Amino acid sequence: MKIACFASGSGSNVEALFEAIEAGTLHASIELIVCDQPDAAVIERAKRRGCDVFVFRAKDYPDKPSFEREIIARLEAKGVERIILAGYMRLIGEELLGRYAGRIVNIHPSLLPAFPGKDAIGQAFRGGVKITGVTIHIVDEGMDTGPIMAQEAVRITEEMTRETLQQAIQRVEHRLYPQVIEEWMKEEANV
Ligand code: GRF
C-alpha cells in the first residue's frame, strides 16, 4: 500500500517505518514525506533513503486550506492511500480530513486522553505519574482525539530522568507503530 508520512522533527519514527519495510514486516511503500520545517532532520533521513520530500512553510500560503490543497495534489499524484503522522506538529484541517477521512493515523507519547498536546513526555514526568506510554489513533479534527487503535504502557521508575523516559517511550513507538500500521492496512484490505 502506498503511504505518506508527515513529520516536523527528527523523524526517528519515519526511520523505524523505513526499517520495517526493509525488513519485510511492513508491506507498504513510503511515496512521500511531507514536512513543514525546512531544517528538520527528517528531510535528510528521507533523502538518504531516496524518498521524495515535500517541504513547505505555512507562512508562504494565505491559509491552511491552501497548503492542504497543495499537499493533496502531491499525494494524489503519487497515488497515496494512507497518511501516517509521525511528529507532525500541526492540526490536520478539513481539506485533508475530507479527502482522507478515516485514513490518517497519529502516534502520541502518552496514554491518551491523558497529556494531549505538546511535550506529553514532560507533562507526564513533571506530573509525577508512575505510568505513561504510547497511543496510536485515527485522526479527527481534534488535538490528539480520535478513535484509539493501540496503547502500550511505559513505567516511570524512580531513577528515570526526562531523557531516559523519552528513550523508553521511543523504543516502544519504533516497535509498535509499524506493527499497528501493518495490521490496520490488512484489516482495511479485507473490508
Ligand atoms: C514522537 O514521540 C511522537 O509520538 C510524537 O512526536 C514524536 C516524533 O519523534 N507525535 P520523531 O520525529 O519520530 O523522532
UniProtKB/TrEMBL annotation:
Annotated positions for site Raises pKa of active site His: D144
Keywords noted in UniProt: Purine biosynthesis, Transferase
Residues annotated to bind N(1)-(5-phospho-beta-D-ribosyl)glycinamide: G11, S12, N13
Pathway the protein acts in: Purine metabolism; IMP biosynthesis via de novo pathway; N(2)-formyl-N(1)-(5-phospho-D-ribosyl)glycinamide from N(1)-(5-phospho-D-ribosyl)glycinamide (10-formyl THF route): step 1/1
Function: Catalyzes the transfer of a formyl group from 10-formyltetrahydrofolate to 5-phospho-ribosyl-glycinamide (GAR), producing 5-phospho-ribosyl-N-formylglycinamide (FGAR) and tetrahydrofolate.
Active site positions, chain numbering: H108
Transferase found in the keyword field: yes
Keyword Transferase set for record: yes
Residue numbers binding (6R)-10-formyltetrahydrofolate: K64, M89, R90, L91, I92, N106
Gene3D superfamilies given in the database record: Formyl transferase, N-terminal domain (3.40.50.170)
Organism: Exiguobacterium indicum
Protein name (database record): Phosphoribosylglycinamide formyltransferase
Reactions it catalyzes: N(1)-(5-phospho-beta-D-ribosyl)glycinamide + (6R)-10-formyltetrahydrofolate = N(2)-formyl-N(1)-(5-phospho-beta-D-ribosyl)glycinamide + (6S)-5,6,7,8-tetrahydrofolate + H(+)
Residue ranges constituting the Formyl transferase N-terminal domain according to the UniProt record: 1-181
Similarity field: Belongs to the GART family.
Enzyme class: transferase
GO BP of this protein: 'de novo' IMP biosynthetic process
GO MF term set: phosphoribosylglycinamide formyltransferase activity
GO cellular component, one term: cytosol
Pfam families linked: Formyl_trans_N
EC number, UniProt record: 2.1.2.2
NCBIfam families: PurN
